[in-house]
Specification:
It is a single chain. By secondary structure, this protein is an alpha/beta fold. 45% of the residues lie in helices and 19% in strands. The chain has two domains: 165 residues, Bordetella uptake gene, domain 1 (D-Maltodextrin-Binding Protein, domain 2, 3-Layer(aba) Sandwich); 99 residues, 3-Layer(aba) Sandwich (D-Maltodextrin-Binding Protein, domain 2). Strands 1, 2, 3, 4, 5, 6, 7, 8, 9 and 10 form a ten-stranded mixed β-sheet that branches. Helix 6 links the parallel strand 5 and strand 6. It is globular. It comes from Aerophototrophica crusticola.
């Protein structure tokens, strides 16, 4: 009887502690790790969300860029962090594709994190240096097939969104190009603008400004519907390349074991941020928009990551591209 009483008391104490943790949290600044270089599309999304969430939570969220190894270094840091809600990860589609791309990961993308919620789906664009000869996507495919040994395709490194989209593009046209990996989207875009490389497939958050400014040439957006900020840009489906369909989703995570009340508080703050008119307007300027409120939840993100791992595994396996 005494044992049962003590056990009940212990359970009650745990419940009270968890409630107190949620009520008090956060009492100090929070670090949001972005596993890519500053200035890239994921970094832009993170800073917009972090600023709005900071207001809701009453504590500053500091964005820290921990780039390298296709985003796995930053993700590993968060996976191993104390599960107290003070270290978060904002990662893109690479959270799912890393499960196949990397033979040895120091964490399990599906099980070593506490999902907080989806943030946004970012369309991709197929772009080229401004003086590339092809006028539209049909001409681009024809030109690339005839000049495969001369055309270069840039990406932001193995596992980056631009790398994944590039693989889909090459598979769709049945042609392998010379790929040029960079250490981040910024350097890749700089060389595309400068004409040192020919093509790239990258997120609208990184390409919209360059397209509107005439610094690069755009051929298509990789989503079923057009992007409002680029109304004259056709979809890959309408332009004759329906197999290239990809949007780069972003999700917010805490380390596995973070108390559920803390995760719920973070999720509610995220949902509030995604309703923020400033965030919505800025996202719109970048060619994207926040996900629907019902998708910015722990369960939806957790299920989505597992589904995306299954979706991308055959694509990556067929391409035979792996990283150590």
């Amino acid at each position: 009887m005494r044992f049962k009483t003590l056990a009940a008391a212990a359970l009650l104490a745990v419940g009270v502690s968890a409630t107190a943790t949620a009520q008090d949290y956060p009492t100090r600044p929070i670090t949001m790790v972005v596993p890519f270089a500053a200035g890239g599309p994921t970094d832009t999304v993170a800073r917009l969300v972090a600023q709005s969430m900071s207001q809701s939570l009453g504590q500053q969220i500091v964005v820290e860029n921990v780039g390298g190894a296709g985003g796995t270094l930053g993700a590993a840091r968060v996976a191993k962090a104390d599960p107290d809600g003070y270290t978060l990860l904002l990662h893109h589609i690479g959270q799912a594709t890393s499960a196949t791309l990397y033979r040895k990961l120091p964490y399990d993308p599906a099980n070593d994190f506490a999902p907080v919620g989806l943030v946004t789906d970012v369309p991709m664009t197929i772009v080229a240096k401004k003086d590339f000869p092809a006028k539209d996507l049909k001409e681009l495919v024809e030109y690339v097939k005839k000049n495969a040994d001369k055309v270069t395709l840039a990406n932001a490194g193995v596992g980056a969104a631009s790398h994944l989209c590039g693989m889909l593009f090459m598979q769709a046209i049945g042609t392998q190009l010379t790929t040029v990996p960079y250490k981040g989207t910024g350097p890749a875009m700089n060389d595309l603008v400068g004409g040192q490389v020919d093509l790239m497939c990258d997120q609208t958050t990184n390409t919209t400004g360059q397209i509107k400014g005439g610094a690069i040439k755009a051929y298509a957006v990789t989503t079923p519907t057009k992007v409002p900020s680029l109304p004259d840009l056709p979809t890959t489906k309408d332009a004759g390349l329906p197999a290239v369909q990809v949007a780069v989703w972003h999700g917010l995570y805490a380390p596995k074991g973070t108390p559920a009340p803390v995760v719920d508080k973070l999720s509610k703050a995220l949902q509030t941020a995604l309703k923020d008119e400033t965030v919505k307007a800025r996202f719109g300027e970048l060619g994207t928009e926040p996900v629907a409120q019902e998708r910015a939840t722990p369960k939806v993100l957790g299920d989505f990551v597992k589904a995306e791992i299954d979706r991308w595994k055959p694509v990556i396996t067929a391409a035979g591209v792996y990283a150590d």
